[in-house]
Automatic annotation (TrEMBL):
PANTHER family: KYNURENINE 3-MONOOXYGENASE (PTHR46028:SF2). Residues 6-331 form the FAD-binding domain. It comes from the Bacteria. One of its GO terms (molecular function) is FAD binding. Its EC number is 1.14.13.9. Pfam families: FAD_binding_3. InterPro entries: FAD-bd, FAD/NAD-bd_sf, Kynurenine_monooxygenase. This is Kynurenine 3-monooxygenase.
Length: 440
């Protein structure tokens, strides 16, 4: 059963569900197609990250559909990073100069379910689970889905692919010659481990994101409402110190004892987790254009997946949805104008966060442990206090504001130039002063 006037949203993940909410609030009939069964009645898919960091951009979108309070009720605020060196005590580094601002660790499953409930409750939204899109004709809006009962055909006036990094909608648009794409797969993968509660309490400080920076690799841990932590290893996929190089239990135990000595006593299922949990791939997806004929388009990871090192992928996908809603409002609901407008406004911003996310990997796995970096962060917080509103760190602008990502990149470059000029002026004055005194 399908209504040719419907908007079909393929993928009931984070972006797809939020988009269904926004479209239904505009009075549009929406069909949300999801390949998985209803996650509210089953268990989470293994291998997808369990929790994620939600920050201001994501919260801004949730506020607009009245879901922020519900989602934040279960959130665990993380006010900074705790760095775990191989030897020595962990070190806390606040995210903001006053230590007050926090990013929020939330359950991906709970967020998705809250969005699904919200979408399902709106008039005009129907959700078809167990529907995996396999074919799409962008000219006619005809779709074919694989279902348990065999192939199902459907049709829609507009089709939006919110089906994630490996988007089938994008593949179909590519197959019909509608776009070009590039996939930069990182030679790093990720694997999750668990730190269970210790005597019923959090085993580590719950108000921080924990990082074990190890130069060419790292592990992070985020707290969960059940007082456990989910750790994510970001390791090379091949070569020394890679996932491929570590298989038997003794080698796994030995490696963690040498490189993550404080983890072993806190993670009793470390070896089982390591051997059982899959290695996920990481990469950057770029494609152009994001839409074909103004009737088939892409949003979120389907259009521009990024590496997770700034904790911004979902936040950015939510921003896309807000912007698409704005474009529809400004174009009087004309999709053929709104979809190109969305791309024109978002493409530079998504490219900017893609680059910042890659750069942040180097910072997290390598630089955060260095005394020079820590000194730099302290100096940055001093500047933020001394020049309120005039000097704002990149982290602050990305995580605690909705300043467009491309503008963040430009502003940070300007600030660095200003600081460089300031430092030069200071050096020239000091040299002139020395010369004057010598010539007296
Ligand atoms: P997805 O969440 O991938 O949803 C796509 C949906 O489409 C899924 O439900 C899928 O089942 C469905 N689907 C796929 N193919 C089909 C098909 N053919 N037919 C029908 N349905 C289909 N972001 C943050 O903001 N903060 C973080 O801390 C963070 N941490 C991360 C950690 C890791 C390890 C990873 C890998 C990512 C992280 N991200 C984070 C990024 C974030 O997960 C993504 O950016 C976000 O999930 C994108 O949302 P989406 O709705 O576009 O895609």
């Amino acid at each position: 059963m399908s209504d040719p006037d419907e908007v079909a949203v393929v993928g009931a993940g984070l972006a797809g569900c939020l988009l269904a909410c926004f479209l239904a609030r505009r009075g549009l009939p929406v069909a949300l197609y999801e390949r998985r069964p209803d996650p509210r009645t089953g268990t989470a898919e293994r291998g997808r990250s369990i929790n994620l960091a939600l920050s201001e951009r994501g919260l801004d979108a949730l506020r607009r559909v009245g879901l922020d309070r519900q989602v934040m009720a279960e959130a665990l605020p993380m006010r900074g990073r705790v760095i775990h060196p191989v030897k020595g005590e962990p070190d806390f580094q606040p995210y903001s100069h006053d230590g007050a601002r926090a990013i929020n660790s939330i359950s991906r499953g709970a967020l998705n379910n809250a969005l699904l409930d919200a979408a399902a409750a709106l008039p005009g939204v129907r959700i078809a689970f167990g529907h995996r899109l396999t074919e799409l004709d962008p000219k006619t809006g005809e779709m074919t889905f694989d279902t348990e009962g065999g192939p199902v055909r459907a049709c829609a006036a507009v089709v939006i692919g919110a089906d994630g990094a490996g988007s089938a909608v994008r593949a179909q648009l590519l197959a019909h010659g509608g776009l070009t794409e590039s996939l930069d797969v990182l030679d790093y993968g990720y694997k999750e481990l668990t730190i269970p509660p210790l005597d019923g309490e959090f085993a580590l400080a719950p108000d921080a994101l924990h990082i074990w920076p190890r130069g060419t690799s790292m592990m992070i841990a985020l707290p969960n409402p059940d007082r456990s932590f989910t750790c994510t290893l970001f390791w090379p996929t091949s070569g020394t110190g890679s996932f491929a190089s570590l298989g038997d239990p003794a080698a796994i135990e030995g490696h963690f004892a040498a490189h993550y000595p404080d983890l072993g006593p806190l993670a009793p299922t470390l070896v089982e987790d390591y051997r059982r949990n899959p290695v996920g791939t990481l990469g950057t997806v770029r494609c152009r254009p994001w839409q074909v004929n103004g009737t088939a388009g892409l949003i979120g990871d389907a259009a521009h997946a990024i590496v997770p090192f700034y904790g911004q992928g979902a936040n950015c996908a939510f921003e896309d949805v807000v912007e698409l809603d704005r474009c529809l409002a400004e174009t009087g609901g004309d999709w053929t104008a709104a979809l190109p407008l969305l791309e024109a406004r978002r493409a530079d911003n998504t490219e900017a966060i893609a680059r910042m996310a890659l750069a942040n990997f180097v910072e997290m796995r390598d630089k955060v442990a260095s005394p020079m970096f820590q000194l730099g962060k302290k100096a940055e917080h001093l500047l933020e206090r001394a020049l309120p509103g005039r000097y704002v760190s990149r982290y602050e602008l990305v995580s605690f504001s909705t300043v467009p990502y491309a503008e963040v990149a430009r502003r940070v470059r300007r600030q660095h130039r200003m600081l460089g000029a300031g430092a030069l002026a200071l050096a020239v004055s000091a040299a002139a002063f020395v010369l004057l005194r010598r010539n007296r």
